[in-house]
Amino acid sequence: HACEAGMDMGIVNAAHCIEDKYENIDKELLEYVEDVLLNRCDNATERMLEFAQTLDPKSKPCALKRLNGEVPKFEATPRQNPIKENLIAPPKNVSAVPKYMDWTDHLPMSDTYDILEKIMKERIIVIDGAMGTSIQKYKSLKEEDFRGEQWKNHTHDLKGNNDLLVVTRPDVIGEIHGGMLEGGADIIETNTFNGTTISQADYELQDLKHVNLINTEGAKLAKRVCAEWTAKTPNKPRFVAGAIGPTNRTLSVSPSVENPAYRNCTYDEVVQAYIEQAEGLYAGGVDLFLVETIFDSLNAKAAMYALDLFFEKVGKRIPVFISGTIVDNSGRTLSGQTNEAFWNSIKHAKPIAIGLNCALGAKDMIPYIENLSKCSDCFVFCYPNAGLPNAMGGYDQKGSEMAEECRPFAARGLINGIGGCCGTTNEHIKCLHDMVSEYKPRKTHDVEPLMRISGLEPLNYKPDEKNMRSTFLNVGERCNVAGSSIYKKAIVDGNYDKALQIALKQVEQGAHVIDINMDDGLIDAVSAMTKFVNLLVAEPEASKVPFMIDSSKFHVVEAGLKCSQGKCIVNSISLKEGEEEFIRRAKIVKRHGAAVVVMAFDETGQAATCDDKVSMCQRAYKVLVEKVGFDPQDIVFDPNILTVGTGMMEHNNYAVDFINATREIKRVCPGCKISGGVSNIAFSFRGNEPVRRAFHSAFLYHACEAGM
C-alpha cells in the first residue's frame, strides 16, 4: 500500500521484500492484515491476533501453514464498526503546489567563469602538455639545480622533486610554459602537482613554509608567462590552472595487504593539505583550480570539500576542473569506480568541467569520454598520454600521430577541451591545437533530474510512477546493530569478517543500498563505523552498491562519510534541535556530496498524524532548497513508520497516516523521495513470521502507490 502511495525506498530485509509479493500473499491472511493496516474496523487487532494464533510462526506468508498442519475453517470475532470508506484514497480537492524560491549562492564567482564559459562554447580550448616529460628533456639538471640557495643545506636529496624548480630554476619552468603557449595552449598548469605537505613529506619538506612557497611562486611564474603571451595577442586570453595532484596517498585503499581497514592518511589530513595548497595557489593569482589525475574518488571528494571551505574563507569562487584517471580498459579508477560512478560522487561540487587524463592513450579513452559526455551537464575535456609507454617507460607517439588518435573526440562532438599528459610536449600541443581548430565544441546539455548515488557503480534512481513497487529501492537492514542481533554480536566481538559476510549476503539477496548503523552503548561507534566502512570499500561485491550512513549521532555520520568514495545517503537529520543546527548539518552533508534522509521531527517532537508529517517535511524541504541549495532529488523524507496493532486506539491510524502523508509530501515537495523503516509497522507481531512479512508486503504495496 505504501508503494501504491508512491514510496521510493525503505530499510527492509531485501530477500523477504523480493520474495513476498503482495499478489501472492495468502488471501485470508491478507484480509486480516489489511484490516489492521487500513484501520477498517475497531477490533482489527484482536481479530488479527486470533487468526495469528492458528498459524505456524515459521511459515511464509505466500506459503502459509497452520499449526500441526491442520487447515480448519477459522471463524474470527465479527468486525466491530466496519469502515466502508477507503481511508487511503487520494483526495479529490487539493491545494496548489507551493512555489519555492531559487537558492542563491552568497559567494560571487570570479570574472574567469564568464570568460571561460564563453570561449568553451565557441571553440575547443587547449590545455598544456606534460610538465614532467618536458623537464626530463633538460638533461643537465643536477641536484644543485633542485636545491638552489633556498634548500642548499637541506638534509634530504631533492633531485626529482620537480615542483622545487619554480623557485630554484624558474627559467626552466618559464621556458616550458612559454613553449606550451607558443604551441597554442589556452590554459597552462602550475608546476605544483606535488605541492602538498603530504607529498612533500617524501623529501622532508612538509613544513608549510616550503609548501606555500612552491605554490605561490609556481602560480606567480605561470601568471607572468601568460601575461607576456596575452600581451602579444590580446584577443586570446590565457589562463593559469592551479595544478592540484592526488597526493601520494589513497583514502580508499589500504597500503597493507594484511590489514585492509588500515589507512596511512586520514580524510581530515588530506582536506587540510588541499586547503593549504589552495591558499598558496590563490595567493599567487591562479585563474582556476585543476584537481587532476584522480585515481581515488575519495581523494577528489576531499579536494572538493577543501575547496568549498577555502571559497567560504576568501569569499569568492573560482572555476574548478576535475580530471579522473581510468587505470586500464576495465574503465575504472584505481579504487574501483566506473567513470559514471565517479561523476555521481563529485558532481555536487559543480565543476565547470569534468574530464579524464593519464593512464591510457587517446584511442582507449574514447568510450569513457563518450560516457562522461552523456552523463554530465558541464563541459568535458581530456588530456591523454602520448600513446602507451614503451618497454623503457618512455612514449614514442609523435604529435601528429596523437592528434589523429584524438580526432574522434572532436569529430564526434564529445569535448570542450583537450590537452596532453605523459609523454606530451609543446610539439604535441601544437598538433592538437591545429587539429581541434577544425571542429566545434561539444554542446552542453541538461541531464534528467534523478537521484544519482553510487558505490563502485552508479545507481540512478528513476521511479516508475505507474508501478512504484517495481522500482522500489531495497535498503538492506542487516548491517544495522539495531536490526540484526547477529551483526551486533559480530561488531561487539570484533569479528569484522563475519560482519562483511552479512553485508555481502544482503547484496546477493537484492539489496540496492546497504544501511550501516553502529549506535549501541557497547560499541565505540566512530571507531566501528570507520573500520567497517574501510573494510567494506575493499570488498567490491559489497561496495558496488551505495551506502546509507546511519546514526542518530552526527559525528558518527561524518566518520562514515569520510571513508566512502561513493555518493552515500545520510540517515538522518531533522529539525529536532532547531533550524540553525539543521542548516549547519545539511550544509556539511551537501559539502560531502551525499543525499540525505530527513526525519519528520521538529522542536515539538515526532510527527504522528498525517498533517504533522506533511507540515514538518514541507518546512524542512523549504529550508533545504531555499537556504541550503540542496538538490530536491537528493532529499529523502522519512515521515515515521509507526507500529500498528498495539491494542491502543490512538495507534490504529498510523499506517493510514503514513500512506496519505507520503502522497501529499511528494506532491508539495517536488522531486523529494520517501523512505522508512518498514519493519517498524508490525513490531507488535514479532515472532510470527508469516504475519510480520505479510504486513511488510501489504504496507509496501500501498505506500509505494502513494509515492514511497
Coarse structural class? alpha/beta
Q: Hey, roughly how much beta strand do the residues contain?
A: 5-15%
Going across the major beta sheet, what is the strand order? 1-12-13-14-15-16-19-20
Provide the gyration radius in Å.
29 Å
Low-confidence stretches: none
Can you tell me the overall shape?
elongated
Alpha plus pi helix count: 25
How far apart the termini lie comes to 9 Å
Descriptive notes:
With 708 residues, the chain is an alpha/beta fold. The protein has 25 helices and 20 strands. Strands 1-12-13-14-15-16-19-20 form an eight-stranded parallel beta sheet. Helix 21 (554-561) links the parallel strand 14 (547-550) and strand 15 (569-573). Helix 2 packs across helix 25 (689-706), helix 10 packs across helix 11 and helix 19 packs parallel to helix 21. The N and C termini lie close together (9 Å).
Which terms summarize this structure?
eight-stranded parallel sheet; 708 residues; 12% strand; alpha/beta
Give a concise summary:
The protein is built from 25 helices and 20 strands. The chain has 708 residues and is α/β, with parallel strands linked by helices.
Task: Compile the SSE list and pairings.
Elements: E1 9-12, H1 14-19, H2 27-37, H3 44-52, H4 111-122, E2 125-126, H5 131-136, H6 143-147, H7 165-168, H8 170-182, E3 187-189, H9 197-200, H10 208-232, E4 239-244, H11 267-283, E5 288-294, H12 297-314, E6 320-324, H13 339-346, E7 353-361, H14 362-375, E8 379-385, H15 399-411, E9 417-418, H16 426-436, E10 451-454, E11 458-461, E12 473-476, H17 485-492, H18 496-508, E13 513-517, H19 525-537, H20 540-543, E14 547-550, H21 554-561, E15 569-573, H22 579-592, E16 595-599, E17 601-602, E18 605-606, H23 610-628, E19 635-638, H24 654-668, E20 673-674, H25 689-706
Parallel strand pairs: 1-12, 2-9, 3-4, 4-5, 5-6, 6-7, 7-8, 8-9, 12-13, 13-14, 14-15, 15-16, 16-19, 19-20
Antiparallel strand pairs: 10-11, 17-18
